[in-house]
Structure formats: structure tokens, C-alpha cells
Amino acid sequence: MKRKYYRRLVSFMAFLLIISSLNGQAIAQGLVNGSDEEWSFSAFGGNTSAERNPEPEAVDNGITLTATGGKISSSDEGMSFYFKEVPADTNFELRAKAKVISFNSNGSISTPNQKSFGLMLKDEIGSHRDSSTHTSSYMAIGALDTVMKGFNKKGTQTKLETFSENAVPLSGEVYDLSIKKSGETYVLTSNGESEIVTIEELFSDQLFAGIYVARDAEVVFQDLEIVIDDRQVNELFINDSEMKKEYLIGESLNLQGLAVTVVFEGGEERLLTEDEYIVSGFDSITPGPNTVTIHFLGASSTLDITILSLNITAVDIIYFQLKQFIMWEILLMQKE
Q1: What's the confidence (pLDDT) of residue 20?
Q2: Is residue 63 over pLDDT 60?
Q3: Which of 86, 131, 198, 214 has CB atoms 3.0–4.6 Å from 185's, for a disulfide?
Q4: Where is 22: in which H helix or E strand?
Q5: Could you count the other beta carbons within 10 Å of the beta carbon of residue 119?
Q6: What percentage of residues in the chain have a pLDDT greater than 70?
Q7: Dihedrals phi, psi of 306, to nearest 5 degrees
Q8: Domains located in the chain, CATH noted
Q9: pLDDT value at position 193?
Q10: Which residues form the Ig-like domain (predicted)?
Q11: CB count, 10 Å around CB of 5?
């Protein structure tokens, strides 16, 4: 009886050891909520290691990524990356909620501007546990330079403006992050603030879309998903006859009256709502003609507007003493 008990106990312990050894591998293969096997994990790039960039940890409705190694610099993307492979010509939106456990909290880890976390689309990734320098084209949004912003790389790294309404990334902060890809136009959003970027041929045949941490970050990513829109557009029409076409310097774009119609493959025709399409190119800083582009699922169409110069046509002087002073100055100038 005792032998039978011990044999069962040994078998059970061996089973636990096997399960324990497979746990990291299972997570690395992408068990989001214990089901999706299409996600993968890789830690690669300069300053990464098994100790500094451990395997991801599955939590309720999400994944925890931790890194005390790696870096996001102008010449190297060393990171812990949890990703899915997607055809580069696909239109999709990558979304996740990032809950910061810690960020830039270890003073012994230098170069705070290389510490990072967020969402990234990458043209190539390094081999798992390869700590040699790695770089490739990418589009990203998240923490960099100790603030929240969008950034990308095609040959050289480009950093976009800081999201001024986003809180500085610290423990306890939460960010709703997304990258929307429409053809070669990308909308980068963090807590409601967005930047729109168009870069041609950023990716080759495949891209890698996912979440990442680098150098000094522990973040829980929840509600991670890639929403693919595989509808094919035949034509995109715009009717701007009822739209405001002239703007003053500094004035915001008004889309009221603009009608955007899409014709899908198969002949279905539909009028798009304002939140379905992407608008880029508007710039009311410089006077003159301005071309605005409407994007939808990789198709685009343009419209022309005009930014008017500010000209003074009249001055109304309220204060009597100031009026007297100006009139006196005019008389003096006329005498000269």
C-alpha cells in the first residue's frame, strides 16, 4: 500500500516538474487568456539577457512584461517583445491597456531616455536571447525620453511631439494605447491624443506587431488584441462642395459638410462616418494652398483648401490718451 502511495507521489512530482519546465515555453508561445497560440515572445538586442529580460507572465486577461535590460536608442532596439506576425499589406488596429507597475524607478540603471514600453510594429526581430545589437524599421507609441509619445524608424529614428495631456509614465499610471494601420498611414493614440504618420514602404512582406518593455520597466498589458479589417476598397470618393474651404492661420479643420463614400470590392457602396476615415496633411500655420488627404483601408483621396493671411484692415483705439499719443507721433512723422 505504501509502495503504491510513494509511486503515485513520485509520478505526481515528476508531472509537476514537467509542467513547470514547460510553463515559460507555453507563455512564450502566446497563451493570452490560455488560448491564443499565435502570439510569441522574444528578448533580443543590446544589453538583454535571460536575467534582465525574463519570460512574460500570464495574468488575468493580460501579460506582464518586465525588463531591466535592453534599450531603445537611435541605433539599437534591445527589448522584451511579445508579438504576432502579420502580413505587411494588412489593415488593422493593435490595441492594449498598459498598467505601469514600475518605470524608470531603478537609479542604478543609467540613460533614462533609453527606457521604454508600449506598442510596436517591427519589420524584423532578433533571435530569442541574442544580445547583439539589433535594429530595423518600426512604428511605435509609448514611453520614451521619460514621456509618452510616438516614434518611428526608417533608416533614422524620428521622435514625434510629446502627448501633452498624457501623464508622465510612473507607477500606477494607465494608458489606452493603439496603432491603427491604414495602408501606409498610421494613427498612434495614447489616452485620446493622436499623431498621424505616413511612411511609404516601412515594412517588407511581413511585420511583427506587439507589446514591449526595455531597460527599466514592469508593465501589465491587458485587453491586447489585433483587429484586422480585410475588406477591399475599389474606390474612395469625396464631395467637399459643402465643406468650409478657407481658414485663418491657427484655425482648426472643420469636416462638417464633407461626404466620403467608399465602394468596396463586389460593388457595395457606403457613406463613411467621420470616425471611420483618417485625415492627414492639414496645416494652418503657413498661409497659402494646403492639400488634405483622406485615408480609408489603404485607399486615399485629396481635397484642396486655402490658409488665408492675416491682414489688418482697421484699428479701433479705445483709450483717449493712447489715441492722442499715436496722433502726435503721426504728426511728427509727417513733419519729417
Answers
A1: 41
A2: yes
A3: 198
A4: helix 2-28
A5: 26
A6: 82
A7: -130, 135
A8: 9-229 (2.60.120.560), 233-308 (2.60.40.3630)
A9: 98
A10: 242-306
A11: 9
pTM of the model: 0.83
Residue 61's pLDDT is 86
The answer to whether 151 and 68 are in contact (CB under 8 A) is no
pLDDT in tens, 178-215: 999 999 999 999 999 999 999 999 999 999 999 999 99
As a residue count, the chain comes to: 336
Per-residue pLDDT tens for 82-108?
Answer: 999 999 999 999 999 999 999 999 999
Per-residue confidence (pLDDT) for residue 92, from 0 to 100? 98
Residue 267: which residues within 8 A CB-CB, separation 6 or more? none
Quote the pLDDT of residue 101: 98
Q: Which residue, 240, 276, 236, 277, is CA-closest to 257?
A: 240
Nearest to 291 by CA among 280, 278, 277: 280
Nearest to 259 by CA among 303, 307, 291, 306: 303
Q: Provide CB contacts within 8 A for 197, sequence distance 6+.
A: 139, 150, 152, 160, 185, 186, 188
User: Pairing state of beta strands 288-296 and 278-280?
Assistant: antiparallel
At residue 6, the 3 state secondary structure works out as helix
Q: For residue 41, what are the CA distances in angstroms to 135, 153, 261, 300? A: 17, 22, 41, 35
Which of 36, 26, 32, 28 lies closest to 222, judged by CA?
32
User: Distance of CA 310 to CAs 80, 245, 253, Å?
Assistant: 51, 16, 17
